[in-house]
Each structure stands twice: as C-alpha cells, then as structure tokens.
Design brief:
Helix content is 60%, strand content 0%. The chain is mostly helical and 303 residues long. It folds into two domains: 80 residues, no CATH class; 169 residues, no CATH class. Helix 7 runs antiparallel to helix 8 and helix 8 packs antiparallel against helix 10.
C-alpha cells in the first residue's frame, strides 16, 4: 500500500514529526513536596560527639606525670636538702636534714610550681588555648561540692574502721610539732588539692573519657591517685581509702564537667579533716590523742 493510497499516513501540514520534548515543570505554590522530580539527598547519620574532647593527648599527660615524679621525688628534694645542709644545718647529719618536714614541704611546693608552669606553657604555647578554659575550670555545678564533702567524709570514716590500718606510719613525722602540722594544714587546703585535681581530673580524666566510658575513666583515674600514697603508709588499706576518695572526686568531675567542683570537694574534705584533727589535739599539740585515726585520713592531702 503506497502512501498516496492512504492519506492518513501522509505527514500533515504544520505538524512536526520530532518526538515531543518534555519541559521541566515548576510546582505551583502550595503543591505537595512528593510531586518534586528532584530526589532528596540521603541523610548520613553522624556519630555522637565524645563525652570529653581535650586538646592534649595521652602522651602529653604521660610527659607531665614523668616530670612530676622526677621533680618531686628526685631532683628538687636533692637540691633542697643539699642547699639546706650547706646553708642552714651544717652541723646536723644528712638523715636529720632529710627528715625535716619543712624541707619536704618546700620541695613539694617548688616541684608543683615548675609542673604548673609547664602545664600552662603546654596548653597556651603548644595548643594556643586559654589554660583555665581548656582545663574546664568553671563554676557551673559547684553546688555539688557540699554534697560531695559530706559523702566523702562519712563514707571514708565509716569504711576506715573496718579495714586493717597500721598504728603508725612515716606520715606521722609531719605532725611531730605544731608548726609542721599547721604547715601541712595550709598545704592541704591550697596547693596540694589544686595540683592533684589539675593533673588527675583536669588532664588525665578527659583523655581516658574520650576513648573509653566515663565509669572506667573515673576508676582508672582514681587508681594511680591511691597508689601514690602507698609509700606514705605501707598499707593497702590506706591505699584503698585514698582510691575511693579519688572515685568520689572523679564522679563529681564527671557529673559537673568542672575541675573547680572536684577541687572544692577536695578542699572541703581536707579542711574538714584538718579541723577535726586540730580540735581533737588541742591545736595539734597532743597528736597522740588521735594520730592513729587522723593521720591515715590526712594522707590524701599530701604526697
């Protein structure tokens, strides 16, 4: 059949034989979103932010720990004792000079000053962050500190009565004279808890909490905190008590996200024990009245 025999197959004038081109259509205002021709991008789930995100690393914490041990136990005590022997106590034996509590406190203070300067230089010099902000020294949630002091004092006091404790310890020498006892009391509510909280709850805890759970971070921070005090008492019961103190301090730090809060709990606990010791011993003049009970509890105040 030819095309001339079937006029319906002939191209009509004015009509194009090209396939129609579909133009993109614009939705009218108010049209439902389901009519859009552009597929919506698929939302990619994101991981939750870490509980803690410090700017420093675990290697920085290890460096601070090594520096603290080297200064506190070796370098600074050696320098202080040598200087004291030559200048102040030339006629006393080396052992008598080494056992003077005032020199031990001076060595600890000088060591802490050097470590504190290093901490600040690390944060502000290497990472270019403000030290107190990076360390989370804020006063939010510090209302918890009063509850923490009460929990800590009662719990440790009760538990200490059921653990085997030595009747005497090397720490007793620091309370042999009222002057030394007052120096310890001042140190226990100022420099001691400040430096301990800066390191254990300020630097060490957030590094662990970033990689593991908060619970394990609190426990693993408290363990070395307690072990450091073994050399004072040679008693694992005393180490357990101080470790539990560290657990409470770490819990306060985790709940409030504030090193200032754990510092206040630490100061409050130490201050409470020092006040009780002063009251029971007539201003530290009769330490034999309460030495067996008090000195073990005061061990968490001085390293």
């Amino acid at each position: 059949m030819s095309s001339s025999d079937n006029p319906q197959l002939e191209p009509q004038p004015g009509l194009s034989t090209e396939p129609p081109v579909l133009e993109p259509q614009t939705l009218a205002p108010g049209a439902p979103a389901s009519l859009t021709l552009t597929p919506s991008p698929t939302e990619v789930p994101t991981a939750p932010p870490p509980v803690e995100n410090p700017i420093w690393t675990g290697w920085d914490v290890l460096l601070i720990a090594v520096l603290t041990v080297a200064l506190s136990f070796f370098i600074v005590p050696l320098v202080v004792v040598l200087a004291a022997k030559v200048v102040a106590y030339p006629h006393e034996s080396w052992m008598e000079v080494v056992r003077k509590p005032a020199l031990a406190l001076l060595s600890e203070l000088l060591s802490y000053i050097v470590v504190a300067v290093f901490m600040i230089m690390l944060v502000e010099g290497k990472y270019h962050q403000r030290f107190w902000r990076a360390i989370q020294w804020n006063w939010d949630g510090t209302r918890w500190w009063m509850l923490g002091v009460g929990m800590l004092t009662v719990f440790i006091d009760v538990l200490g009565r059921f653990l085997p404790m030595p009747k005497t310890s090397p720490f007793d020498e620091f309370f042999s004279r009222p002057r030394d006892a007052y120096l310890i009391a001042i140190f226990a509510v100022t420099v001691g808890p400040l430096m301990e909280e800066l390191f254990f709850r300020g630097f060490f805890y957030p590094v662990l909490a970033r990689r593991i759970s908060v619970t394990w971070a609190v426990l693993l921070t408290a363990l070395p905190f307690g072990l450091l005090h073994y050399f004072q008492y040679r008693s694992w019961g005393a180490v357990l008590l101080v470790t539990l103190v560290g657990v409470v301090l770490g819990t306060v730090r985790a709940m409030t996200k504030s090193v200032a809060a754990s510092f206040l709990v630490h100061v409050g606990y130490n201050g409470t024990l020092m006040s009780l010791a002063a009251a029971q011993t007539d201003g530290f003049r009769h330490m034999e009245r309460a030495m067996a009970h008090i000195s073990l509890h005061l061990g968490c105040t001085f390293q």
